[in-house]
Amino acid sequence: MAESEDPSLRIVLERLETTCREISRCVISSCPGPHAIVLVLQLGRYTEEEQKTVALIKAVFGKPAMKHMVILFTRKEELEGQSLSDFIADADVNLKSIVQECGNRCCAFSNSSQTSEAEKEGQVQELVELIEKMVQCNKGAYFSDAIYKDTEERLKQREEILRKIYIDQLSEEIKLVKEDEHKSEAEKEEKIKLLKIKCDEKIKNIREEAEKNIFADVLNRILKMISKIWHFFW
C-alpha cells in the first residue's frame, strides 16, 4: 500500500496492514480450514471499529464464514443480572444483525476477579457445547474458500519440496561420511545416526517451516484483495 503524508490515513493503512498480517497467520495456522471462528466482542455498544472488522471478515472470506462463527461477549458481569438474550433484544440493529447472521450462537464470559473457578469452567463448557452443536449442524464440515484451498495446496507443495531437499541433503552427507578414510566404521555409524536424527527432526517440523515460507505470499494476496475495498471500511 502506498504511503501517504496524511498522518490519519497513514495510521489507518498501518492498522489495516496489521490486520492483514493477523488474518494471514490465522489462514495459515488453520488450514485446510477452521471448524469454528470465535468473534470476541465486549458487552456494550457495538463499536464502529468492530463493525468494520466484521465487514472485513465477510469481504475476505464471504458470508458462508458466518455459518462457522460464534460470538463470545466479554465482561458478562456488566449484565448485572440481565440475561444475555434480553441484552441482545435491547441492542442496536447492527449488533442484532450480526448475532442473527451467526445463527444466534453467542455466550458471555465474565472477566471479573470475583468470578469463581466453577463459574469460569461453566463458561468454557458453554462455549465448547455451543461450538460442538454448530459443528454438528454443519455436518462436521470445516469452513473453506478459495484462499484456504490455495494456501493448503501451497503448503503441501512446499512441504514436498522441503522434504526432498532434506532427504537429498541427508543422502549426500551420508555419502561423504562413508567416503571419509580418516574415520573408523564405528565413528561413521555414529555420525550417520546423528545425521538421520537431525534430518528426522527437520521433517518433523516441516509444516512449520512451510508455513514460514509461504507467509509473505498469503499476506500479499490478502493485502491485494483488501487494497481494492479498504476505503469502504476506513
Automatic annotation (TrEMBL):
**UniProt-listed Pfam families:** AIG1
Q: Which residues form a coiled coil?
A: none
A Gene Ontology cellular component where this protein is annotated is: lipid droplet
Q: Does the keyword GTP-binding apply?
A: yes
According to its UniProt entry, one GO biological process term is:
GTP metabolic process
InterPro entries, per the entry: G_AIG1, GIMA/IAN/Toc, P-loop_NTPase
GTP-binding recorded as keyword: yes
Keyword annotations for this protein? GTP-binding, Nucleotide-binding
Name all AIG1-type G domain ranges: 1-152
The lineage's top-level taxon is: Eukaryota
The entry lists its GO molecular-function terms as:
GTP binding; GTPase activity; protein homodimerization activity
Family of the protein in this entry: Belongs to the TRAFAC class TrmE-Era-EngA-EngB-Septin-like GTPase superfamily. AIG1/Toc34/Toc159-like paraseptin GTPase family. IAN subfamily.
Q: What is this protein called in UniProt? A: GTPase, IMAP family member 7
